[in-house]
Write a structure and sequence with these properties.
Number of strands: 26
Number of domains: 3
Helix content: 40-55%
CATH architecture of the largest domain: Alpha-Beta Barrel
Structural class: alpha+beta
Radius of gyration: 56 Å
Strand content: 15-25%
Strand order of the largest sheet: 18-19-21-22-23-24-25-26
CATH topology of the largest domain: TIM Barrel
């Protein structure tokens, strides 16, 4: 590969040499060469296998020719002796025949055939006696062939025939005293199976299929047990006069594999591996070269960035660049730096992150403890956050209780998550302000360039959207901006605008969920649940607008409306079948902080001439103990007014029960998470029984929420729970449906004389 200077002088050549196609082309070239080499070696192997087959058939034919000639010559000698001693006795002949049979083992039998073409003598006689007297000139063709042998003195072969004594074979006829005084023939009988077994070695027998072809007809075939490789074969003709045989051998697959060898595949593998290694080496060389080029370019860009940063810092030093309260960068400086960071990130193809930080419940502390306290707390927070500042992180103060952080040169999203962890760590220790320690948490929204915005303003806006979503989901955590959040934010803003009109136009309604008194089996109380009858979106549940109302500060107004509406409903039921009911309303943390809470409830009761005994306020266990000292005063005033106090979601994680002793609690509502499987899980049953016993020992009533099955209701009745609430008793419903339900329930009880 060329060095850097060569590539600089020849940019076109450098692009070609650094092209990703070069390693691919090299790999393909070596693969094609390996394929050709493998094919060539395979073809050479095939030629070698065929050559070996031809060698085998030549050797086999030579052996067969030699054996046939020696056996035929033996017959001729017997015929000559018979012609010399025409009066040779049968016993002597048999002795000579047995001697020949011992020395020339391929014969099955030796015969003397008389001039009349009939078999006169045969040795051995056992197994061949049925051939005595057989006329070997059994047709004109055979007779002519035998006569011609007598005239010429040459041995005649019968070809492959069915033997009189059984089986197939061939017979060689040696004429005795031809022409002078014919005395017949000395014949040698070869059984074909025996002949092949005797002449062909075990190696040939096990490795090849053997076929004997006579005049284009396969007259004999012997096949081994192993599968054959029909692609290869070899043929050879016998040179024995009168015997028109062609031998053909076909090898087994095993024999071919033994002679084929692994050279083609080794060549293919070796050359392919070599090509892969060379391609990888070229690719790595290109990678290193490209990396060096990128590093050089990046270095130049970083040097330019340093110069530009110094210039920007010199310019900003002449203007007001820091916030006077916190000492951090102000919003103007931050936005300019963010724009510069995004431009640099665009050139370097890097990422940057914009983090909005909101201090949880800071406004409450600021309103409660004073603005001087709030300013000191902001300074303490700024000091901790400023410790995160370095060449990649810029911390700034936005306004109110919001801070901004820009993180540049991000390689991976994990870098952002690590910074978020460091920010959360800044709030682990309490802040010491005016001699008191205060715990504070923060919620964060994150927008990442370029995914979440391509300019500073859009990135800031989307980080703010993510911040709101994080606050909506529970505070004290972070949320990354994702697609669709902007649309949901627009809907939230529209809903926030509609919320003002909802209060002025009285668009809220109350639904009531009945609570069954398990002792009397009567509906003695209901829980009031607010709904928003939106003019275009229909009936909205609390989850769609209560968080928004808390965020915007309108929750106190809604709470006042709920208290007034509940008192109006109690006044409407007065004197009727529902005049005994008590209505429970829910209070939020913001409402409990309202100093006018008790007076507002008192005014609502007085305006509708309703007894305070018929009103109950519910707070969740979390809100109840969040600020015990402040809440204690408010709740004691409500108790003195005569309003009942209920603790909702009891048992959801707070271990201290001291507030049950010190606060005027009238009712505990067991969280539905314990009731769902109270009839199935032993642990939930034990906890529920313990809560009931604890409350009763303190003189407090108990209500179980989330009753959906008869088994749950039966368990609560058995263990003396006071009230039951859930879908089994009744769903939240308008006032008219509550009246109808209680009327039906009362009539059913009177008619049957039983309870449900």
């Amino acid at each position: 590969m060329p060095d850097q200077s060569t590539s600089d002088r020849n940019p076109g050549l450098a692009r070609v040499l650094l092209s990703p196609a070069i390693p691919v082309i090299l790999m393909l070239t070596f693969t094609v060469l390996a394929g050709f080499l493998c094919a060539g070696i395979s073809k050479q192997n095939q030629h070698q296998i065929q050559f070996n087959l031809n060698t085998e058939i030549s050797a086999l034919v030579r052996e067969l020719n030699s054996d046939f000639h020696s056996h035929v010559r033996a017959l001729e000698r017997m015929a000559e002796r018979r012609s010399v001693t025409p009066d040779l006795g049968v016993d002597t002949w048999r002795m000579d025949a047995r001697s020949y049979l011992r020395h020339f083992t391929h014969y099955q039998a030796i015969e003397w055939i008389g001039p009349d073409y009939r078999i006169q003598w045969i040795e051995p006689l056992d197994g061949n006696d049925n051939a005595l007297g057989f006329n070997v000139a059994f047709n004109e063709q055979r007779k002519d062939s035998l006569d011609q042998a007598t005239e010429t003195g040459r041995v005649d072969f019968s070809g492959i025939v069915e033997l009189k004594q059984g089986g197939t074979g061939i017979v060689a006829y040696a004429p005795i005293a031809p022409q002078e005084r014919p005395m017949g023939f000395i014949a040698g009988v070869f059984r074909l199976e025996g002949l092949v077994e005797a002449l062909i070695t075990p190696r040939i027998h096990n490795d090849f299929q053997i076929e004997i072809i006579e005049r284009d007809d396969i007259r004999f075939k012997q096949t081994p047990d192993l599968p054959m490789q029909a692609e290869f074969s070899a043929e050879g003709a016998l040179t024995v006069p009168g015997l028109n045989w062609v031998l053909r051998i076909t090898p087994t697959v095993k024999w071919v594999e033994q002679h084929q060898g692994a050279e083609p595949w080794m060549a293919l593998f070796s050359l392919s591996l070599l090509g892969l290694m060379i391609s990888l080496l070229v690719w790595l060389t290109q990678l290193v070269t490209r990396r060096n080029r990128v590093l050089t370019q990046t270095r130049a860009m970083l040097e330019e960035e340093v110069y530009q940063r110094e210039s920007v810092q010199q310019d900003l030093a002449r203007i007001e660049s820091t916030d006077s309260l916190t000492g951090l960068a102000n919003r103007r400086f931050f936005m300019e730096d963010l724009s510069h960071t995004l431009a640099l990130a665009d050139r370097l193809h890097r990422q940057a992150a914009m983090i909005m930080i909101d201090l949880d419940r800071f406004q409450i502390l600021n309103d409660t403890l004073g603005h001087q306290f709030g300013d000191e707390l902001l300074i303490k927070v700024a000091q901790r956050l400023n410790k995160l500042s370095d060449e990649r992180v810029l911390v700034a103060y936005s306004s109110g209780d919001e801070f901004m952080i820009c993180q540049q040169h991000i390689d991976d999203i994990d870098d952002v998550i690590a910074l978020l962890g460091q920010i959360k760590h800044c709030f682990v220790e309490p802040f010491l302000v005016q001699g008191q320690a205060h715990n504070l948490t923060a919620t964060m929204g994150v927008a990442v360039y370029p995914q979440s915005g391509l300019d500073a303003d859009l990135l800031l806006r989307n980080a703010d959207v993510a911040l709101y979503r994080a606050k909506e989901n529970g505070r004290n955590h972070y949320q990354f901006y994702t697609e669709g959040m902007q649309e949901r934010e627009v809907l939230r803003l529209e809903l926030d605008k509609d919320l003002n009109r909802a209060l002025s136009e009285n668009q809220f309604v109350l639904h009531f969920q009945p609570q069954l008194d398990l002792a009397t089996q009567q509906i003695g109380s209901v829980e009031a649940l607010v709904r928003w009858q939106h003019p275009t979106r229909g009936l909205l549940p609390p989850v769609d607008f209560i968080p928004l109302a808390e965020e915007s500060g309108r929750i106190a107004d809604i709470g006042r409306w709920v208290a007034l509406a509940a008192c109006r409903q109690l006044a409407a039921w007065r004197g009727g079948p529902l005049g005994h009911l008590r209505i429970a309303i829910n209070l939020s943390g913001r409402e409990l902080e309202d100093s006018d809470l008790v007076s507002n409830i008192e005014n609502a009761l007085r305006a509708n001439d309703v007894s305070a005994e018929q009103l109950e306020v519910e707070l969740t266990e979390e809100i109840f103990i969040e600020n015990l000292e402040r809440n204690l005063d408010q709740l004691k005033r409500l108790n003195q007014l005569g309003v009942h106090l209920a603790i909702d979601d009891f048992g959801t994680g707070y271990s201290s029960l001291a507030y049950l002793r010190d606060f005027p609690v009238d009712l505990l509502k067991i969280d539905r998470s314990f009731i769902t499987r109270v009839a199935e899980r032993h642990d939930d049953a034990v906890i529920t029984r313990a809560v009931i016993n604890l409350a009763h020992n303190l003189g407090i009533q108990v209500c179980a929420e989330g009753i959906e099955t008869d088994a749950q209701l039966s368990f609560l009745q058995t263990h003396r729970c006071d009230l039951a609430q859930g879908y089994l008793i009744g769903r939240p419903m308008p006032a008219a449906e509550v009246e109808a339900m209680i009327t039906r329930h009362a009539k059913s009880s009177r008619d049957t004389g039983t309870v449900r």
